[in-house]
Specification:
Layout (H helix, E strand, L loop, with lengths): L3 E5 L64 H7 L12 E6 L3 E2 L3 E3 L17 E4 L9 E11 L13 E9 L6 E8 L3 E3 L8 E5 L6 E7 L4 E11 L5 H6 L1 E9 L12 E5 L4 E2 L12 E2 L4 E7 H4 L9 E8 L15 E9 L5 E3 L2 E2 L3 E2 L5 E12 L5 E9 L8 E3 L4 E2 L2 E2 L4 H13 L15 E2 L8 E11 L8 E10 L9 E8 L8 E13 L4 E13 L5 E8 L8 E5 L11 E3 L8 E8 L7 E2 L7 E2 L2 E2 L6 E13 L9 E3 L4 E13 L20
Parallel strand pairs: 1-4
Antiparallel strand pairs: 1-19, 2-6, 3-6, 4-5, 5-10, 6-7, 7-17, 8-11, 8-18, 9-10, 11-12, 12-13, 12-14, 14-17, 15-16, 18-19, 20-23, 21-23, 22-23, 23-29, 24-28, 24-30, 25-29, 26-27, 30-31, 32-33, 33-37, 34-36, 34-41, 35-37, 38-41, 39-40, 41-43, 42-43
Length: about 675
């Protein structure tokens, strides 16, 4: 992820910052006292010299009774983006972390005002890549982190489920005070060409509700105020840029001397003593030791600013600002303020979670492919209400198979959204047509996802994918779902992907059965009488795997004298040849054949030498002469479908060949006249 820092050109006097230093009361602003994120800056009552040091909550809020600790900025940096770790205090859940957005030598072109539209008809933001400019304005790093406050609502302060946004920004030197601001964009905003060096522009426009926080770096550090502004406009795109204006919506400070209750929702501090920072926040001159006035961090209850609705920001721009006069609250000259150095980067403050699981596949009729139930949960990872935009899969869902279930839907007494396994059970029941299977009740492209911890936080999605068995063999088949959602006012949220690599199909048993009969008798050749044996065969599939290339041979009958009579006929898999037999119990699982042969050797007659006499069908010696032969049937299937069981072998190419034999003996006596052909058995031999 590349993050761009921009400087903004113009100087600023120390007096301009005075209106932002709201310090009189000893009462601390409540966003500082939620036991979520430590806002570092002033020595008292903080006890730290390192912003990675976690502090006990009761240092700031002595009456809270909470001895657990806030998160420090070091905790967020160590955990890394995109998530904020949950604070040890238990008063909230971690949201999203932007990571450290680093500076580059870019700065806004002289004359680019803070209040300019991003891409208006008349004015727009323009920047260049250039070194130089006042070092006190040279921003170095920026970062954002969010939390959902889960403790009890506070009187005249943040409410349960409010999202609290914390941010930090650093600068190069403290040789003077400097205004600084932070833009939080709801819609898509980006650099048009990251490689541009002159007369560079941004892509995108303001969205109604974009936030701008105005604060300051003070030379001596301490508690500073925050002025909160919203871009308010009509229309979208260029229309919003052209019609919009920055409107002040709240003001406050950590010291609590802001107007009304607004100071309970905004707090900012600049370090008033030497501090140590993580290596991710180095100063170009002093490394990880930052002198007074170089480190700013603040916190804002953004849910409160949006009248109880939590917004979703997509990117952030930190900027240093020059203004001829800003001694009032709100700043009376904000319209004349020039943007200077800046840092730009992605800062998605809302997120979604996606899970995925894949059930056992069901073969198609030819066992060349299988249909798999796939299911999972898409949930809101933060506060506010999000709108599900799409759920797609690679490979694609079967057409018309995608459905979404709310927490109100269940199967066997368990809500479909209780877990991804419960969701899969709901979807499997739907595909199987099981009794009591739930019906989808949500639109997968517009369902709402409410805040973490609420009943509507998650949606269960279920669908089917059909893939060739050559693609999904055993447990090697994977598929990946991608879920997208938008925040309030269509704000951008990063898509979330989830992969399931446990799509499986059962390994089917394979096997054959051969049943044979025979009849010996006399036939006329026209010039003589001779003995002939007529044979009949019943070849059946004995297992669940479909068999192809089924063949029959006989140790006494030439292949030219074996004739297929009936049966088989099931659709063969693509690429298979010959006769195919359906799985056992299915239509087409058996085939019949007939054959004949003429014995030519005395050795073909068993019992020869006892010289029995054929006398009216009875045996004079108590023995009988028999003519016997043995048939062998073979069939094939792919190892991706069938198991190598008894009577089967597998080739290096993955072809499983199964064989079975069946024999019969027919008495030579009494001699009889044979029909034109044999009659196959009507039933199988027992297994």
């Amino acid at each position: 992820m590349n993050f761009r820092k921009r400087d903004l050109l113009i100087s600023l006097s120390t007096a301009i910052v005075a209106a932002l230093l709201l310090r009189a009361s000893p009462v601390r602003a409540q966003v500082q006292n939620l036991c979520l994120q430590e806002i570092d800056g002033v020595v008292s009552p903080d006890s730290y010299g390192d912003v990675s040091t976690e502090e006990a909550c009761n240092l700031d809020q002595t009456s809270s009774g909470i001895t657990a600790k806030n998160n420090s900025w070091g905790d967020l940096i160590s955990a890394g983006p995109p998530s904020v770790p949950n604070p040890k205090s238990g008063t909230g859940t971690g949201g999203t972390f932007s990571g450290i957005l680093q500076s580059v030598p870019d700065q806004m072109t002289v004359g680019t005002k803070v209040t300019f539209p991003i891409n208006g008809t008349t004015n727009k933001w323009i920047y260049k890549v250039a070194a130089g400019g006042p070092s006190k304005s040279d921003l170095q790093q920026g970062a954002t982190g969010t939390y959902i406050y889960t403790a009890a609502s506070l009187s005249s302060g943040p409410a349960m489920s409010d999202e609290i946004l914390y941010y930090l920004v650093t600068r190069a030197t403290n040789n003077g005070s400097e205004l600084q601001g932070a833009w939080f964009f709801l819609g898509p905003v980006s650099l048009t060409d990251p490689s541009c060096t002159s007369k560079c522009t941004f892509t995108g426009h303001h969205t109604n509700g974009d936030l701008f926080f105005l604060s300051a770096f003070t030379q001596g550090g301490g508690q500073v105020g925050i002025q909160a502004y919203q871009w308010q406009c009509t229309g979208t795109g260029t229309a919003c840029d052209d019609s919009g204006a920055l409107i002040n919506v709240a003001n406050g400070a950590c010291s609590g001397s802001g107007s009304g209750t607004s100071s309970n929702f905004l707090c900012g501090e600049v370090n008033d003593h030497l501090i140590t920072v993580p290596s991710a926040l180095p100063n170009p001159s002093t490394g990880t030791s930052l002198d007074t006035g170089l480190f700013y961090n603040g916190g804002v209850d953004v849910t409160h600013l949006f009248s109880g609705q939590t917004p979703c920001f997509s990117s952030v721009l930190f900027e240093s600002i020059s203004s001829p006069s800003c001694s009032t609250v709100p700043c009376s000259s904000i319209g004349n303020a020039d943007a200077k150095f800046f840092i730009f980067g992605t800062a998605n403050t809302c997120s979604i979670n996606a899970s995925k699981t894949c059930g056992q596949g069901i073969f198609n009729a030819t066992q060349t492919g299988a249909t798999y139930p796939v299911a999972g949960l898409v949930s809101n990872g933060d506060g506010g209400t999000l709108t599900l935009s799409s759920i797609t899969d690679s490979p694609s869902f079967d057409t018309g198979s995608l459905g979404c279930f709310s927490s109100a839907k269940s199967f066997n007494g368990t809500s479909c959204t209780a877990s991804k396994d419960a969701c899969l059970a709901c979807e499997t029941a739907v595909l199987a047509g099981a009794s009591g299977a739930p019906s989808p009740d949500l639109n997968c492209s517009s369902a709402s996802l409410t805040a973490t911890g609420t009943a509507g936080n998650a949606v269960c999605y279920g669908a089917a994918i059909t893939e060739p068995t050559s693609t999904c063999s055993g447990a090697s088949c994977t598929d990946t779902v991608t879920a997208t959602a938008t925040g309030p006012s269509g704000s951008i949220i990063a898509p979330k992907m989830a992969t399931a690599n446990n799509c499986t199909i059962p390994s089917l048993a394979a096997g054959l059965n051969v049943t044979k009969n025979c009849q010996a008798g006399l036939v006329s050749t026209g010039s003589a009488l001779e003995v002939q044996v007529n044979t009949g065969y019943l070849v059946c599939n004995e297992q669940a795997a479909l068999l192809s290339n089924v063949t029959l041979t006989d140790n006494e009958v030439s292949s030219a004298n074996i004739t297929s009579v009936s049966g088989g006929g099931t659709t063969c898999p693509s690429g298979a040849t010959g006769l195919c037999l359906a799985p056992e119990g299915k239509t087409g699982d058996c085939a019949t054949f007939t054959g004949f042969y003429i014995p030519t050797l005395l050795s073909q007659i068993s019992g020869i030498g006892t010289v029995p006499a054929c006398t009216t069908g009875s045996l004079t010696n108590g023995t009988q002469d028999f003519l016997a032969d043995t048939a062998t049937a073979t069939g094939q299937c792919k190892s991706s479908v069938c198991a190598v069981s008894s009577g089967c072998t597998v080739s290096s190419s993955g072809t499983v060949t199964c064989s079975a034999t069946g024999g019969a003996s027919c008495p030579l006596c009494p001699l009889q006249t044979l029909p034109a052909s044999g009659s196959p058995p009507s039933s199988e031999n027992p297994d």
